[in-house]
Amino acid sequence: MSHATGGPRPEAGPPPSSPASLAPASPEEYPQRVPARAEGVQLLGRAEGSGYRDAPALVRRADGQTLQLTPLLYLVLEAVDGARSMEDIAEHASRGSGRLVSADNVRTLIDSQLLPMGVLRLANGSEPAVKKADPLLGMRFRYTVTDPERTRRITAPFAALFHPLIVAAVALAFLASCWWVLMIKGLGSATHEAFANPALLLLIFAITILSAGFHEFGHAAAARKGGATPGAMGAGLYLVWPAFYTDVTDSYRLGRGGRLRTDLGGLYFNAIVAVAIMGLWWATGFDALLLVVATQILQMVRQLLPLVRFDGYHILADATGVPDLFQRIKPTLLGLLPWNWGRPENRVLKPWARAVVSIWVLITVPLLLFSLVLMVLALPRLLATAWDSLLKQQEMFSDALSAGDVTGATLRVLAMAAVVLPMLGMLYIVVRLLRQLVAGLWRKTSSSVLQRTAAMGAVVALFAGLAWAWWPDGGTYRPVQPYERGTLVDATTSVFPNSAGTSLREGGSRRTVALWPSDAPKPTREHPQLSMVLVPVEGSSGSADASQSIAPSWVFPFDRPAAPEDGDNQALAVNTTDGSVTYSVAFALVWAEDGEPVDNRNDAYAFANCSGCAAVAVAFQVVLIVGQTDVVVPENLSAAANYNCLDCLTYALASQLVLTLDGPLGDASREQLSALWAEIAEYGRNIRNVPVSEIQGRLTAYKEKITAIIRNDPSATRKAGQATAPTDAATPTTTLTGTAPATQVPDGPAPAPSGSAPASAPVQQPTPDEVTPSFAPDETVQPTGDVGGALPEDVTPAPTGQGTPR
Question: Which residue ranges make up each domain of the chain?
Answer without folding.
Answer: 21-114, 135-320, 382-497, 546-781
